[in-house]
Specification:
single chain; about 425 residues; mainly alpha; Growth Hormone, Chain: A; 23 helices
């Protein structure tokens, strides 16, 4: 009998571990590809600005580059509705297998784009179009992978297994940081602008193929198969979500706001902030971010374990309070800190962020019942990221220019933490309970 097709909990422990390992790899690879792309785009922002927006000032070009980054998130809620519907009605595995092909294909196509000098304004328009396709397909990855893992995981280890998903995003950022840092060292500015910036996006094709191969060789989650067997699959999961689970949806959007703003400010925008606003060398800023990402990945799993022991609500409230109290002092310290000090501050920020990131995917999976789990997670997560996450680098750059205050991004992050705190106070504890059906 194929162990993948047997309900978890009724198969031998060794076979169960093999299934979980495959599920973990399937959840890891898609988000890894997605965030490797986002990291490459964000860390190469100054180069991409020169390639696609050469006729404006460097500051305007940078804002235009981050504007394209932000606009690609507008389609994420639409993608969240589509992939949530698909995943709750057709299956988690089918949705994840399709989304990774579309996402990696659009990312690969970015590497083949002609630049502004070759086709003029069509270059940035094509860039925007491909990022919209990439954003649409990627909008189901984080939610689908998290729900898939949580529905397979033992009940007392759901937080640990769900933390694999944010760890995969950080790993994608880490590889992007390492690759871009190496490119800045090995390539001249002319080589980076001519062809070097294309290299990270070319990797999407083989990575996407590997991810799809892993996913199509898995059975769907036990929870979804149970729901199929009992004929309880909803034909309109999004309508069911909006009519019967509005409170859970609003709480999820609120708590995800801190995740969205914090992730993009700390892990995506920070190298640009250090280089452009504080005058730190690009190589040093990338090295600091890389070290912080390594620490972040380690902290993620620790926070997943702690959420299993202390509870999701406790961890998410602690994360919000910590950001409210410590964000401005830590940002203030960056201006006067040396290289070692910058690394320590970024590691501290990473630790704070993992309190939220390491807990959130499990919480968002547990707060919704199986019939709308994918839809609820995908819609809330993508709405928050579309409104607050993808726009965070753009808003941070604009706030600094509008106010003249280099601490403006810190205050923006404090506001996000305050909203997340209110949302979590209104929530209930979800750990230690059976998944809702």
């Amino acid at each position: 009998m194929n162990s993948d097709t047997v309900r978890m909990g009724t198969i031998p422990a060794a076979a169960e571990r093999r299934v979980i390992s495959k599920v973990a790899a399937a959840g890891f690879i898609g988000n890894f590809v997605e965030w490797f792309d986002y990291a490459s785009y964000a860390y190469l922002a100054t180069v991409i600005a020169a390639v696609f927006f050469p006729d404006v000032s460097p500051a305007a070009g940078l804002m235009a580059t981050f504007g394209v980054f932000a606009l690609s998130f507008i389609i994420r809620p639409i993608g969240g509705v589509f992939w949530g519907h698909y995943g709750d009605k057709i299956g988690r595995k089918q949705a994840l297998s399709l989304s990774i092909i579309i996402m990696s294909g659009a990312t690969f196509a970015i590497a083949l784009l002609p630049d502004f000098q070759q086709i003029g304004v069509w270059a940035p328009l094509l860039l925007l179009g491909l990022r919209l396709i990439q954003g649409f397909s990627a909008s189901g990855e984080y939610a689908g992978a998290s729900a898939f893992l949580v529905e397979y995981a033992p009940s007392h280890k759901r937080g640990l297994y769900a933390s694999i998903v944010p760890a995969s995003t950080a790993s994608g950022l880490l590889l992007g940081s390492l690759m871009v840092a190496g490119m800045h060292v090995l390539l001249t500015p002319e080589q980076l602008q001519s062809w070097g910036w294309r290299l990270p996006f070319l990797l999407a094709a083989p990575l996407g193929y590997i991810g799809r191969y892993i996913r199509v060789h898995l059975e769907d989650s036990p929870k979804f198969r149970e729901m199929e067997a009992s004929r309880e699959v909803s034909h309109a999961p999004v309508s069911l979500l909006l009519s019967q689970h509005r409170r859970a949806l609003l709480i999820s959007i609120g708590v995800t706001m801190l995740n969205a703003v914090g992730f993009y400010i700390i892990l995506s925008y920070m190298p640009t902030y250090l280089a452009v606003e504080l005058g730190v060398g690009e190589t040093d800023s990338f090295i600091a971010t890389t070290i912080a990402l390594v620490a972040y990945i380690g902290f993620i799993f620790l926070m997943g374990v702690l959420s299993d022991r202390l509870g999701r609500k406790t961890m998410l409230i602690l994360a919000s309070v910590a950001f409210i109290c410590l964000t401005v002092p830590l940002f203030s310290g960056l201006a006067s800190a040396g290289f070692l000090g910058i690394i320590l501050i970024q590691v501290a920020f990473g630790a704070l962020l993992t309190m939220n990131d390491g807990t959130l995917p499990c919480f968002l999976s547990e707060i919704f019942p199986t019939r709308v789990r994918y839809s609820g997670f995908a819609l809330s997560f993508n709405l928050a990221n579309a409104i607050f996450g993808g726009t965070a680098p753009f808003i941070a750059t604009w706030l600094i220019q509008a106010t003249g205050d280099k601490l403006a991004p810190a205050w923006y992050l404090v506001v996000a933490a305050g909203i997340a705190l209110v949302a979590m106070i209104m929530s209930r504890e979800t750990s230690g309970e059976p998944l809702q059906d």
